Amino acid sequence: MCGIFAYLNYNVGRERRYILEVLLNGLRRLEYRGYDSSGIAIDSDTSSVTQSKSKPYDTAQPVVFRQEGKIESLVSSVYTEVDQLNLDLEKPFLVHAGIAHTRWATHGVPAPRNSHPQSSGEFDEFLVVHNGIITNYEVLKQTLVRHGFTFESDTDTEVIPKLAKFVFDKARDGEGGVTFSQVVMEVMRQLEGAYALIFKSPHYPNELIACKRGSTLLLGVNELGGETSRHLFHDVKALTANDKPKELFFSSDLCAIVEHTKNYAVIEDDEIVHIKDGSVSILKFNYEKEKPASVQRALSVLEMEVEQIKKGDFDHFMKKEIHEQPDSLTTSMRGRLKDGVVGLGGLKDHMRTIRRSRRIIFIGCGTSYHAALAARPIMEELTDIPVTMEIASDMLDRKALIFKEDTAVFVSQSGETADTLLALEYALQHGALCVGVTNTVGSTLARKTHCGVHINAGCEIGVASTKAYTCQIVVMVMMALAIGSDKMSTLAQREAIIAGLIKLPEKVHDVLKLDGEMKALAQSLIDEQSLLMFGRGNNYATALEGALKVKEVALMHSEGMLAGEMKHGPLALVDEYLPIIVIATRDDSFSKQQSVIQQLHARKGRLIVMCSEGDASLVCPDGRSRVIEVPQVVDCLQPIINIIPMQLLAYHLTVLRGYNVDQPRNLAKSVTTQ
Prior knowledge:
Layout: E1 3-15, H1 16-30, E2 37-43, E3 62-68, H2 71-85, E4 92-103, E5 118-119, E6 127-134, H3 137-146, H4 159-173, H5 180-190, E7 193-200, E8 208-213, E9 218-223, H6 236-240, E10 246-251, E11 263-266, E12 271-276, E13 279-284, E14 293-294, E15 300-301, H7 317-323, H8 325-333, E16 337-338, E17 341-342, H9 351-355, E18 359-364, H10 366-383, E19 387-391, H11 392-398, E20 406-412, H12 418-429, E21 433-438, H13 444-448, E22 451-454, H14 467-483, H15 491-511, H16 515-525, E23 530-535, H17 540-554, E24 557-562, E25 579-584, H18 590-602, E26 606-612, H19 616-619, E27 626-630, H20 638-657
Parallel strand pairs: 18-19, 18-20, 20-21, 21-22, 23-24, 23-25, 25-26, 26-27
Antiparallel strand pairs: 1-4, 1-10, 2-3, 2-4, 5-6, 6-7, 7-8, 8-12, 9-10, 9-11, 11-15, 12-13, 13-14, 16-17
Helix pairs in contact: 3-4, 4-5, 8-14, 8-15, 10-14, 10-17, 11-12, 15-20, 16-20, 17-20
Protein name: glutamine--fructose-6-phosphate transaminase (isomerizing)
Keywords: Aminotransferase, Glutamine amidotransferase, Repeat, Transferase
GO molecular function: carbohydrate derivative binding; glutamine-fructose-6-phosphate transaminase (isomerizing) activity
């Protein structure tokens, strides 16, 4: 749930001011992952930091800056402390290694002492930034306390640098020295849980080590003065010969490195990446072997532009991403619709197995679960395969039955959602075919599933998912078309859906014209405490997702309900004050929704009705209700059109109520903890 970042320049002079700005900008790009506290560590001047007793090393002591609050709070405090420490911001470094962290609190309240980098103690002999959770930290902490270590924070992370110091001291007391990678390997041997770690130590100046298990971590490489060679990374000796000036990065997300380089490598689980003397060595850690194996890795080229991580002419990322949906949907479908046929290369080799499944299980959390719920009706209709829905955490709690004849479809925008990944491991253990639907190339979900489809929605920075949701629905509709393409009985229906997909970006562009109308609606709801949304059929998911958006960013209680359940309790809430949104666009459930509207009117309900263009007089013949008219499309694509006014409503409610729309309270984009 946190963001970690590191920057190492080699054989190229960089002033301390430049290094600070690279680290702070990296955190700004990762702030969507957590924003309750942050910190960085850089090198001091040898004489600038004084101690009452001599340091246990001869190199410059690290300077650690940590601050509660958002990144800009850290920025202000960094430059204040730099002045107090009399650090020369113009001093150039031919080689320098810095690390940075932005936090979403799991262990310990937001406070400087709980912020990262966490330290081994006096003199900061080992510093660590961490994304994830160490599940056995209490046992490790007790052991370290018995060996004389004192702890200053409430975090699980603090055991890691202290354990590194313990390993280092123990090895140094024996015969011979110990390498940085050997220290980290021994630390990894003791850790349990999910983590991505970056280590910095003055005992190993100008070196960085990163390792991971379960949490995303990437390496970026920018060779200066020419094209970055895409040869394989071999062992340290082979790479040390390359003295070209270069910049090297570690990051939790590609969006933090795209402005520096497009050349990157995904770090795999149990790999240790060691940067030393401008070279990169990748080692594969194995619990059963003392010596790790060397790994060869080619660089990939990032297909992302810097403009994607900037707001452009918009005030907030959420609004930008809402308005990007015509383009993101076009990109998601590009190359996959040809001559009336859907082609999904990621599923091709497993299509026969999917078609012979006894059932399809959609598994996800939050918005991704809602996207799968929206796609369920058409998946069942076109494939004749039963489709069940599972919230990942509940599936694990129940130890739900999964069989090897099942196809389990895992939906996650980030591909790193902890509950979804644990559910994936569970399904793999039970022999099911596992399919991934994600927006993140190289994510854990993409790597661990048997096959899958990338939604290609582009970089989404706003914490509340918008364009990824609509692209997820489109991709799962295309999956239904591909799986059911062997059935002649549904040919006409499939052709109509494909024609609808081709026209969909244009229809989304039309519905975005409701922006001003939704702002006016938000103005009328600004002082309300609660909001209900009723949907059914294809649009039950729309009601759930619309309510979730209002909860997430506007901090207003809102609840999405199945309209068919209205009479079984929720009707008691209806009065002339509580605003209720009823989704009543044209589909098989239209007449039933008309009945719901009549019943709500009979109880003096305060209604806002979403209907298809031209249907206002049918849903509200007396004109007493507020009406939102949207373009009509084929039934299975209507949830994509209908959610956009709800996204706009949530956005405007948030702005009008004075809340941070891109960084809602207590939330973060990628949920990498249980």
